[in-house]
Amino acid sequence: MKGWGVVLLVFTFCLPPVFFIAGCQEPPKTEAVRPVKIASGDVDPAHWGKAYPIEYERWKKTKEPDPAGSKYKRTFGPDRVIYDRLSEYPFSALLYNGWGFGVEYNEPRGHFYMIRDQLSVDPSRLKAGGVCLTCKTPYAPQFEKEMGHDYYSRPYKEIWENIPEKYRKLGVSCIDCHDNNDMTLRLSRGFTLVKALKDMGVQPEDLTHQQMRSMVCAQCHVTYVVTKDKDMKSTGVFFPWQGSKLGGITIENIIKKLRSDPSYLEWKQAVTGFKLAYIRHPEFELFSNNSVHWNAGVSCPDCHMPYVKVGTYKVSDHRVMSPLKNGLKACVQCHAESPDWLRRQVFNIQDRTASLLLRAGYETAVVAKLFETANNAQAAGKAVDKVMYDKAKDFYEEAFYRVVFIGAENSVGFHNPPEALRVLGDAVAFASRSEAILRNALARAGVDVPQNVDLDLNKYLDKRGEKKLKFIPAQEIKDPFGTQARFE
Amino acid sequence: MKGWGVVLLVFTFCLPPVFFIAGCQEPPKTEAVRPVKIASGDVDPAHWGKAYPIEYERWKKTKEPDPAGSKYKRTFGPDRVIYDRLSEYPFSALLYNGWGFGVEYNEPRGHFYMIRDQLSVDPSRLKAGGVCLTCKTPYAPQFEKEMGHDYYSRPYKEIWENIPEKYRKLGVSCIDCHDNNDMTLRLSRGFTLVKALKDMGVQPEDLTHQQMRSMVCAQCHVTYVVTKDKDMKSTGVFFPWQGSKLGGITIENIIKKLRSDPSYLEWKQAVTGFKLAYIRHPEFELFSNNSVHWNAGVSCPDCHMPYVKVGTYKVSDHRVMSPLKNGLKACVQCHAESPDWLRRQVFNIQDRTASLLLRAGYETAVVAKLFETANNAQAAGKAVDKVMYDKAKDFYEEAFYRVVFIGAENSVGFHNPPEALRVLGDAVAFASRSEAILRNALARAGVDVPQNVDLDLNKYLDKRGEKKLKFIPAQEIKDPFGTQARFE
Q1: DSSP character string of A231-245
Q2: Which residues of B touch A359 (CB under 8 A)?
Q3: Does the pLDDT at position A34 exceed 90?
Q4: A422: nearest CB among B296, B355, B435
């Protein structure tokens, strides 16, 4: 019997595949068996949750306030207080004055609230139109495809009403990152991320699974440009990654791109009168630019969605949050140190970043005020040297974008400590060169400027927007090194 | 038999110790057996080497050029070229002009050369007198004790000649760090390090072995002040750590101390005419200030003297060098990554630090030149506002000390990346505030200052000292991020 078995086995293995096709039925494919079939295009997480109840239940928990985390990211903690970014960093109220970000700019809550927060924020934040929904609803790709130009330019509320009523408050959903058949990671934002990757010569189909784990997050945790026509109507949205490479999307290249075309300038800064571009939450850009964790092959979910065990199941935690908020569980998977020890190192980095952000921010705000002085002087008939003015403006913008870059990034430097600090150092250097030139130009024009420029911050901090928002002194972030934020 | 054995064992263990003392001879002490006995006070490594030949042979190898290491620390590499720090960072030739550091300032070679380098450097570097021997000869503690004030103030060569002829070129030796009886680590520099530790409330006898492994290095790899009398004769030497704590010797506290007493001002900066203090190789200060490696309990020798195996012996490598030079052997003891990968992360940090050091250095040099302009204007009878001038000077000094701190520190930021970058960022911020105020003051005094200040660097870089040293363009460190070092 044994002899015959071996002969049969050898015989079977030697048969060419065509034998089966010709002689037998094709064997059934290996397929995961799930209690439900998720329909193509189904946005409803509750339906997906029938097949993946643990992920779904964790995802729903993004509704609940988080445990306390970083001292610089206090919103959505146990006390449920929403922190006002303009009160945290008062200089930013001056710098962002002129559009929505200068009116109401809150620290972010959990994913559950993404569209709810948008619906309750001051309407000035939604002026760009339907394009603001790009990262907020799973319907965005469909709308963009079907409506084309209208999707970008028509009023936010008008586009939003096209979402079926049941899903109008639904934020990021399973379908934004997963294939409905086998849960493979997918990029749902072809018109933003996929285009940007191709601009860098990256073909999405070549990305590894581990890279895809970061890419699904990079659909939204990036900066972007809402392009404008000459009437300041939105005409599109793109990521300013051209000229960079994956693993090295630099602030230098981003700024070069932002400044290369007037249609990228989205707003007018009130204090200077300059038309400027903007930078939003560039988590992916900072992290992926040669950071130590990126270079170690770490992906976003490795830290923000570490595995949780539920009974005998082990799934990546769809209650996305900062590792600081859940006992640094993600960190201790690789680092042998205690959570307390690791937390202290994170704070060492964040303290230093916050300190330099304050320096860079205030220095840039001072320059903005000097431009106001220069503009007033010109309006009053004084002659300010144009070459000097233009050079100062050039440096000012270089500083401004760097301050926004690190200020908007949500890790307070942790995603890439030396790069964050380098960028802020350069911001101070650019702002200071601008200030020097501008003071010279003003002096030559016979305009006396005081040693310490009054930033008049209350003017920008109080009575903001429809809600008449006010400065909340208790929320202000002070220099952790005990010095004044601004050297006076 | 078995039963009796147990009874006997119990009985023996229950006997009080006095029983042995009263009834027997005291047992012999455990003692290491060595082929030679090292005499107390013996400075000759060759004698110690008879007992510890492997350590001695490795120590002797500090005479040989190292393998290539960091691109920012190229001296003493395979090509044997000595790199000129003033050519590497041309701004420093301007800032240090006025005393020895502005004449000849070379990147360091191995420990073997410490006193040889001193004997061949431009004599302006030795003007402080015998005090310059404090870290260069094992005879220093004895001289300090015996000669008192003379040790500090008498000419360098005169004190040096008190060293027995055979040992006049002998640098750091076994006795500087070890007890001759049992090789215990010891602090030989009671008059500098031990005093400084006590000023911070640290009792040397409370230090752990692992702390002592850093402390022996901290006898010299620190900053120090050579105090002066009113004729600028040296009167002592101390570490400016007062007001700090072990694990947090901050640049803020160091500067506060340096500026607290005119006797700490060691030289006059030529370009500004200011009497200033100075900061030397503060490796220990930067590393121990809450850096991630310090917090992880790492000591200096863990990285710079990793264990080597010689036959069946395993000893800490007394050929002290950068981990970058010996295949990152020290790093891979804790880090699982490949040496190439680890090297890349070190360079990522050093690139960013070098870039910001250039910004900070040039910005500070610009301000120095503006003070020269202001001083000339005052000499020509123009009235420069004193309050503004003093405030600008205050900020300038804050910037200057920070630039020297990171510029003199020999890790190009690696010993504490976010702290190094924070300090440099603050340097730029202070310098820029100074520049702004000074430009204002000059404008009010009717002095026109150009947009881009000419630093006239050749004046400071060429024909330096007795050797008529010149700028070596090939050695200049360029901004690794491809921008100009100074924004113009």
Answers
A1: T--EEEEE---TT-B
A2: 425-426, 429
A3: no
A4: B355
